[in-house]
User: Fold this.
Amino acid sequence: MTALRVGIAGLGTVGAAVAKIIVENGAALASRCGRALQLTAVSARDRAKDRGVSLGAAEWFADPVKLAQSAPIDVFVELMGGEGDPAKAAVEAAIARGVPVITANKALLAHHGVALAKAAEAKGLALNYEAAVAGGIPIVKALREGLGANRVERVYGILNGTCNYILTTMESSGRSFADVLAEAQRLGYAEADPTFDIGGMDTAHKLCLLAAVAFGNAPALDEIHVEGIERVSPMDIMFAREFGFRIKLLGLASRVNGGIEQRVHPAMVPLGTPLADVDGVFNAVVADCNLAGKSVYEGRGAGAGPTASAVMSDVLDVARGVRLPTFGAPAVHIGRPKVASMGAHVGACYLRFTVIDRPGVIAVLSRCLADQSISIESMLQRSRSPGEAVPVVMITHEASELSMVKALSAVVATGVVTEQPCMIRMERF
Amino acid sequence: MTALRVGIAGLGTVGAAVAKIIVENGAALASRCGRALQLTAVSARDRAKDRGVSLGAAEWFADPVKLAQSAPIDVFVELMGGEGDPAKAAVEAAIARGVPVITANKALLAHHGVALAKAAEAKGLALNYEAAVAGGIPIVKALREGLGANRVERVYGILNGTCNYILTTMESSGRSFADVLAEAQRLGYAEADPTFDIGGMDTAHKLCLLAAVAFGNAPALDEIHVEGIERVSPMDIMFAREFGFRIKLLGLASRVNGGIEQRVHPAMVPLGTPLADVDGVFNAVVADCNLAGKSVYEGRGAGAGPTASAVMSDVLDVARGVRLPTFGAPAVHIGRPKVASMGAHVGACYLRFTVIDRPGVIAVLSRCLADQSISIESMLQRSRSPGEAVPVVMITHEASELSMVKALSAVVATGVVTEQPCMIRMERF
Assistant:
């Protein structure tokens, strides 16, 4: 069989790593996929830059859309990023021309995934994105194929290495969020503008793609309840530990009450469960399924090697002629999910109140919770300094999100707290 | 597209679960794989048995080989087990006739995998076996496809739920191996004849298949160094804990010194690493790769649901027309691995000596180790009862297996020990 001709748009660290694999191992990989791989076209902003790889005989395109439209390629690999053009225009051009597409672009798929999948599937083309979620972990393949006969009840995990690194380091060092973030930026683990990561949006993009392939519906980014880790304090991390939990930024999508609930927020995860032990820049995903039960997938969520590994997995599938619907089920059949509202979410919570320590304060707090039928599982009030602000920490039994919000408003209205109460949801697996 | 006609030979708990899924969800699964699934033929020993599933219009065959030879099927699912006939004859008959095969039969593939793969590949047929290794964890797919562009350096894990349940329970209860095994048999977690599981052969069968697909060579069952868990004592489990380790039965395959080293034995695993926390009947596999780095896969290793999930994953691939070489690379190209001898294996060890506590004993032990250039990292001698037998426990630095064996023989020859020394290899990940 003739070689599979690959065109790559975007030669950052991932693009350069993919190019290097194809140039250096493209012939050897024929034993894995039945045909050799050949890099025939590339596009990037700066032609002069040294990327540590000889681009061989690949044709250079200044314009990625031109590459997609006219280069001699059998597959188009989009590694530019960004939900709009030129990434979107280039992917559309490749599909229009009958060329399958591989992308690591979660924003593009979160916003335009169904339209692009419909276009690709109408032409019988693959549109693959293993690298868009959880880097080197082959989780899209696991959900779409390995667990393909299951009804997935819940899929959740740690999807952002930057946040996980910050939370892990805050716990091990006892330092503040701002301090650790600054260090992560110096070390290159966090972006100069870290908002997208620490605010939870990166996790939300990945979660909506995982949920789409798990539940067979369209990605619904705007239906996700998103909170970031900016307000997680060393004090909460310490209290979590005392209760036998660790704070992680989770993305969770579940079938509840006939709808799909999707949320991204810091959560208390029980020590001794797999997610609690996922440290540093690692990612992990858990799938709860009707047949297979619970399965856990852990690995490196970012970086040139792991992301290139995922891109190459998609390239090998295209070389083999494997062509699956982008989101598991045909795009023409999938619609937006019926949304389970966050107010109806039921769960236990960790609550921290900062109060002036005087008689009757606990009674006031308890009353506000009881009025919403929220009962307390355990309470902790460590240092007592009469007349000074001290933390009072509680773990509640399960209650609805709406009751919890009402109770916290009532607490604030009584005037017994000196700052906004802190609420962190607890997840038991 | 017409429905995929499925024939199943073997209707134990797994076969019945697969049949039920196809009969009840065969039409719905068309959205996952492009065509409906239909159960058209079955074979089992006892026709009268109630399996909790209506076999619908499926034709009954008393002889599984006849089913494979003549039933109206597009795929043959072999769930009888056993390395010989009728499983082997039935699989050969299906391939000879041009029908792809799915099997959960690790013994069949460990012994005859390459011959069967060659026959299947010569006819352009799939021979899939996701269910043969680690039940509900889609690890064959992960290694063959998801990590397909990687060079795998090492693949290892906990592959036998019976052993893991016994070791987990021994640790939590402090009870003896014999006692916990008897309980596991009562509970149905261990077979009436548990030799195959506790002796490590079940793990070895799975390991040789994992190694084959990871390294692209023929399964080499007879080259695996195999030790079981029969001699693991509560005392060793307790000492392991004190040193910060937990004892697990591992299967490990690695590239070392230009060859492949494969071994199955109880090992000390550091607390806080993923494998140490895999409890009860769960399985877990770790792959160390050049691109993706380390990735970990954990899930249920046995049971009707998880195993049926894996079988169905293979069925969906056949329905989609996906056809990969059985062991990742074409069977005509793969040979037996160059074997790295166990004597050359280098690692640290936990050693426990039972000695009569009298002056000079430690000096004798240390001398025997030093003579083989084995140095001691830490030592523990808990209870001192002069004149009585007491345990002396050591963790060594890295040394070759051959040196370790010589040192232990020398210790025995001195006459200072009252029973055979216990040696458990340490694994650091």
